[in-house]
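ok trying this again, last paste got cut off
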Amino acid sequence: MKKTVEAILSGNSPIALPLVLAIAAIVLAIRKTGALLNPQFWAEDGPIFFLQQYEEGAIAIFKPYAGYLLLIPRLVALFADTFFSYAAVPLVYNLASLILTLIVAASVFSPRFQVRYKPLFALAIVLVPLYSNEVFLNITNVQWILALLPLIVLLKEEPDRSYGNVQVQWAIDIAAIVLCGLTGPFIVLMMPLFIWRRFVDRSHYRRIALLAVVSVSLIQILFIVSDSGGGQEGSTLLSLIGNIPRQMNILGYRVFAGLFIGIKAPYSLSRYFFVLYLILVFVMLRYAVPKKNYLIPFCLIFQALILLAAFAKFGDGVSVLIPVGDHGIRYFYIPYVMLTWSLLVLLESHEKPIRFLTAILLTLVVISSLTSGFRSYPFIDYNWKAYSQFIGKEDVTIPINPEGWDLKVRANPN
């Protein structure tokens, strides 16, 4: 029995992958039951992905939103529009998001991704604290989960015959970089990490992977630069520096306390939480650097770049990220996963005190998640199926979630 459990925890058991995917699917169904039993559009699912696909057809795939391309959600919208009735589209979107999340979780089990506790790495993707669960089970925010896939490609060993067909390995990696890189701006933030890896490992594979990353990043940068900003004020370097005290509070309160304590953490202790955050990062790096472990520094740098980008985006309005609520929680999803993955590496330490403290912190992550809005409130039922019967027949305004959003669908989209 002990050997079976150890084999599952290491990912070596043949039942580990299907078992973890089943658990992950159940966790998502519990966290956001309404998305599957009473599927509704969420935010940009409606006016951006559905409506633009309805009005413009396949050409909408190449239309940026918020300053960058969102290829995979656009492909999902095209697929749903081609093969399903309008009434079924919200469910198709949500199921597609579920499948995409499971694909990311399954990628952890690649033999080239050499970590000890693969099932825990995979489950962290769906188990980290995320009040309101806005990242899960919708195509609007699935980009945050898909951003993990190129990072896994970065952290994997190079393709080799010992892992199977080399050409297939190459194809999967490049496809992940291109498809996920054209889905959101995250590949731009990852580019320095790919450059670093190429500098250390001067192989043909790393050169081609970096070429793919740079090419995709340049496409996204072109759209980002040409975009007017989408109404976001943004920040200058001076305002970014001037907001450092508030940024420290956010790192302490929303990142450290949000991950390990939950929504009941007192904001008045934010500065102390920030100190604990710095200590944790220091301990992680102290463990990783002598062992030449790429995962921890890459994860810590990526989560830092995500947070820095969020601070730059909100500028002087960065305080909106402080209150616990629906607004902005998605900006902390990747930092939570990155810190949890780093802790799972520490769990491999030969030093008992480190393993003990790491186990305590991972337990706190689970408790924080379970006590911080683990299960979402049901969506408001705006009776999409009834409204959908009028699409293409007459002009109709359809309310969607969150409250206050709607779709204005013309009878003739052309």
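PB: full thing came through this time. Residues 191 and 214 are 7 Å apart (CA to CA).
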